[in-house]
Amino acid sequence: MQKNAALTNIIWLLFDKFFRLSLSLVVVIWLARYLGPEQFGTLNYALALVSIVGTAAALGLNGLVVRDLVREPLQSDSILGSAFALKVGAAVSGYFVVVCLLLFLRVDELTMKLCLILSLTFLFKTSDVVKYWFESQVQSKYVVIVENGVFAAIVLIKLLLIYFGAPLIAFAWIYIAEVASVAFWLFCIYRFKHSTFSWFFSVEKSRQLLAECWPLIVSVAAWILYSRVDQIMIGQLINAQAVGYFSAAVRISEVSNMLPAIIVMSVMPGVIKLQKTSPLHYRKRMQNIYDLCVVLMLCVAVITQLFADVVVELLFTSSFAEAANVLRLQIWTGIFLALALVSSRYLINEGQQKLLMFRNLIGLLLNVPLNYIFIPLLGIQGAALASLISVIFVSYIFDLSNTVLRPVFMQKTRALLLMSCWQFIGQLFVLQWRKYK
């Protein structure tokens, strides 16, 4: 019964990823066509800036709260109440951080308005604690239904705004409406499933959560800053139009990057169970995941090299033509991001979260100076090159620095050399030779 519930939960999560990814891509394409490179770049600059602060404001509580809810179900009111209070405090603090950043960066009036509006999502995102509860009960279907129902409605509204020629600022308010609606319905469903609403704040539980979550806050914030800082720096060093070109390429590459994420989400729960029961099979299954992700992303990268111009023009029109060369570089990061994703799940399973934090921090410290060097020299292609170099270092070469990661380095090397593919081809050759003999 429990296995069926877990499987159903995974299916709902996979549906959520696929549905939102495919529909959001359609909306992004329509929005980019409507706004044009400059306004599309301005919107993405604001989204990147807000997402960097918002990730830190989320406090990385997801895994910790779910774990505590599973271990201590009788303490759920204090766990949820304390987590909610912490997130409210972080949301308020995050808003003031955004204001300070805007003053420091000296952005134009439109960008400032967009950022201030989008930062209101911090407060509504405090409803994530309800999502944690549903996840702990293996009932993610309620979250998926709410989020996708609201998302579908918002998509229709966005299309109507495009049809009637709404200004850019209207699309920022739509982001707020989406997050606020999800928060409202999640609380409604939670209240319906509970006869009483008795959350309360616990100083002891709050201290415990803060003590445990700080490495995750640093790790996730560093990763988001590392993955979004290029758009901020392009906006500062070039202009909003360049951000628009770069963002279009990133949006396309992000679609392909979801493929290994779906694979990992689907198969990793079963693989983790083998860790204690059969370590040998555990290592083999991990190798199989590395191999599959590399082969898949390599195929995507090769196809993209051939058809990047066609894809960009077909999706975003010829006005975004400069995004094609960025895409040709950006798409190769997908191979190493897939390796990083698989190894991240491995390290979390091994209790090595601090290694993740150091890896992401090093990626950030490497990516920023590389952007400062390459963007003035190569423009937006320089930002793509900086991302590629830094992701190769942190997701692959970094593994040589630690004894825990060296076996992982060997598995990644085996996958990158396509050794499993060559072995398979060799076996087929031997079989055919034997038949011939």
Automatic annotation (TrEMBL):
Keyword Transit peptide: no
Keywords assigned: Membrane, Transmembrane, Transmembrane helix
Subcellular location: Membrane
Record-annotated membrane-spanning stretches: 12-33, 45-66, 78-104, 142-164, 170-188, 289-307, 327-348, 369-395
InterPro entries the UniProt entry points to: Polysacc_synth (IPR002797), PolySynth_Transporter (IPR052556)
Keyword flag Zinc: no
One of the Pfam families matching this protein, by short name: Polysacc_synt
Membrane topology: Multi-pass membrane protein
Protein name: Flippase
